[in-house]
Design a protein that fits this description.
Layout: E1 4-10, E2 13-18, E3 21-25, H1 27-30, H2 32-38, E4 48-49, E5 53-57, E6 65-72, E7 76-80, E8 90-96, E9 100-111, E10 115-122, H3 125-143
Antiparallel strand pairs: 1-2, 2-3, 4-6, 5-6, 5-8, 6-7, 7-10, 8-9, 9-10
Protein backbone atom coordinates (compact mmCIF):
# COMPACT_ATOMS: atom_id res chain seq x y z
CA UNK A 1 0.00 0.00 0.00
CA UNK A 2 1.31 3.46 -0.86
CA UNK A 3 1.92 6.09 1.78
CA UNK A 4 0.72 9.66 1.70
CA UNK A 5 3.21 12.37 2.54
CA UNK A 6 1.84 14.50 5.36
CA UNK A 7 2.66 18.18 5.06
CA UNK A 8 3.22 18.48 8.82
CA UNK A 9 6.82 19.07 9.93
CA UNK A 10 7.57 18.34 13.55
CA UNK A 11 11.02 19.11 14.93
CA UNK A 12 12.65 18.73 11.51
CA UNK A 13 11.09 15.33 10.78
CA UNK A 14 8.83 14.32 7.90
CA UNK A 15 6.15 11.74 8.45
CA UNK A 16 4.77 9.16 6.05
CA UNK A 17 1.26 8.15 6.91
CA UNK A 18 0.02 4.65 6.19
CA UNK A 19 -3.46 3.53 7.14
CA UNK A 20 -3.24 2.96 10.90
CA UNK A 21 0.52 3.65 11.04
CA UNK A 22 2.74 6.73 11.34
CA UNK A 23 6.44 6.41 10.54
CA UNK A 24 9.08 9.09 11.12
CA UNK A 25 11.74 9.69 8.49
CA UNK A 26 14.96 11.30 9.59
CA UNK A 27 16.83 13.87 7.52
CA UNK A 28 19.14 11.19 6.06
CA UNK A 29 16.16 9.54 4.31
CA UNK A 30 14.68 12.80 3.08
CA UNK A 31 17.41 14.08 0.77
CA UNK A 32 19.61 11.29 -0.52
CA UNK A 33 21.04 13.40 -3.36
CA UNK A 34 22.57 15.84 -0.85
CA UNK A 35 24.24 13.03 1.06
CA UNK A 36 25.25 11.18 -2.12
CA UNK A 37 27.24 14.25 -3.18
CA UNK A 38 29.24 14.06 0.06
CA UNK A 39 30.13 10.35 -0.26
CA UNK A 40 33.50 9.47 -1.78
CA UNK A 41 33.39 8.33 -5.41
CA UNK A 42 33.59 4.53 -5.60
CA UNK A 43 33.15 4.09 -9.35
CA UNK A 44 36.01 3.19 -11.67
CA UNK A 45 35.45 6.49 -13.48
CA UNK A 46 33.78 9.52 -11.88
CA UNK A 47 30.47 10.60 -13.35
CA UNK A 48 29.80 14.11 -14.56
CA UNK A 49 26.35 15.63 -14.15
CA UNK A 50 25.28 16.04 -17.77
CA UNK A 51 21.92 16.16 -19.54
CA UNK A 52 22.78 14.34 -22.76
CA UNK A 53 19.99 13.31 -25.15
CA UNK A 54 19.84 9.53 -25.50
CA UNK A 55 17.87 7.02 -27.54
CA UNK A 56 17.45 3.56 -26.05
CA UNK A 57 16.56 0.47 -28.02
CA UNK A 58 15.15 -2.33 -25.86
CA UNK A 59 15.53 -5.96 -26.92
CA UNK A 60 13.17 -6.95 -29.75
CA UNK A 61 12.09 -3.35 -30.36
CA UNK A 62 12.78 -1.07 -33.30
CA UNK A 63 11.13 1.90 -31.61
CA UNK A 64 13.55 4.11 -29.67
CA UNK A 65 12.76 5.42 -26.22
CA UNK A 66 14.05 8.97 -25.96
CA UNK A 67 15.32 10.57 -22.80
CA UNK A 68 18.37 12.17 -21.25
CA UNK A 69 21.16 11.20 -18.93
CA UNK A 70 21.37 12.82 -15.52
CA UNK A 71 25.03 11.84 -15.18
CA UNK A 72 27.58 10.25 -17.46
CA UNK A 73 31.01 8.61 -17.29
CA UNK A 74 33.30 6.61 -19.56
CA UNK A 75 31.85 3.41 -18.13
CA UNK A 76 28.15 4.18 -17.70
CA UNK A 77 25.34 6.62 -17.10
CA UNK A 78 22.12 7.21 -15.22
CA UNK A 79 18.95 7.78 -17.19
CA UNK A 80 15.86 9.19 -15.53
CA UNK A 81 12.62 7.41 -16.43
CA UNK A 82 9.30 6.81 -14.70
CA UNK A 83 9.25 3.39 -16.39
CA UNK A 84 12.75 1.97 -15.78
CA UNK A 85 14.00 -1.31 -17.20
CA UNK A 86 14.66 -4.32 -14.97
CA UNK A 87 18.22 -5.07 -13.85
CA UNK A 88 20.05 -7.17 -16.44
CA UNK A 89 18.26 -5.67 -19.47
CA UNK A 90 20.65 -5.13 -22.38
CA UNK A 91 20.09 -1.86 -24.27
CA UNK A 92 21.49 -0.42 -27.47
CA UNK A 93 22.09 3.28 -26.97
CA UNK A 94 22.72 6.39 -29.00
CA UNK A 95 24.15 9.33 -27.02
CA UNK A 96 24.06 12.76 -28.64
CA UNK A 97 27.15 14.64 -27.47
CA UNK A 98 29.18 16.69 -29.97
CA UNK A 99 28.63 13.71 -32.25
CA UNK A 100 26.61 10.51 -32.01
CA UNK A 101 28.14 7.87 -29.73
CA UNK A 102 26.82 4.33 -30.03
CA UNK A 103 27.02 1.90 -27.13
CA UNK A 104 25.55 -1.26 -25.73
CA UNK A 105 24.82 -1.21 -22.03
CA UNK A 106 23.38 -3.36 -19.28
CA UNK A 107 20.99 -2.08 -16.64
CA UNK A 108 22.72 -2.44 -13.26
CA UNK A 109 20.31 -0.48 -11.05
CA UNK A 110 16.56 -0.02 -11.22
CA UNK A 111 14.94 2.70 -9.15
CA UNK A 112 11.14 2.46 -9.65
CA UNK A 113 9.65 5.68 -11.07
CA UNK A 114 13.12 7.28 -11.00
CA UNK A 115 15.43 5.62 -13.54
CA UNK A 116 18.24 3.23 -14.38
CA UNK A 117 21.95 2.99 -13.84
CA UNK A 118 23.50 1.59 -17.00
CA UNK A 119 26.98 0.12 -17.43
CA UNK A 120 28.45 0.35 -20.92
CA UNK A 121 29.47 -3.11 -22.13
CA UNK A 122 30.39 -2.42 -25.76
CA UNK A 123 31.58 0.69 -27.53
CA UNK A 124 33.82 1.27 -30.53
CA UNK A 125 37.23 2.75 -29.64
CA UNK A 126 36.51 5.94 -31.62
CA UNK A 127 33.17 6.39 -29.79
CA UNK A 128 34.90 5.82 -26.45
CA UNK A 129 37.47 8.49 -27.36
CA UNK A 130 34.69 10.96 -28.32
CA UNK A 131 32.96 10.29 -24.99
CA UNK A 132 36.20 10.67 -23.04
CA UNK A 133 36.94 14.02 -24.72
CA UNK A 134 33.40 15.26 -24.08
CA UNK A 135 33.57 14.29 -20.40
CA UNK A 136 37.00 15.87 -19.97
CA UNK A 137 35.71 19.16 -21.45
CA UNK A 138 32.56 19.02 -19.30
CA UNK A 139 34.62 18.41 -16.15
CA UNK A 140 36.96 21.30 -16.99
CA UNK A 141 33.99 23.62 -17.58
CA UNK A 142 32.52 22.56 -14.22
CA UNK A 143 35.83 23.19 -12.42
CA UNK A 144 36.25 26.71 -13.83
CA UNK A 145 35.07 29.54 -11.57
Amino acid sequence: MFGILVATRMVGDLYLQYPGQLTAMDDSDRDRSFHDEQRPELRARPRVKAKVPVELFAPNSDVPLRGATSDLSETGCYIESIFPFPVGTMLEMSLQIDTTVLAVGTVVTCDPQVGNGIKFTKMLPEDHEQLRAYLEAAQQAKDEP
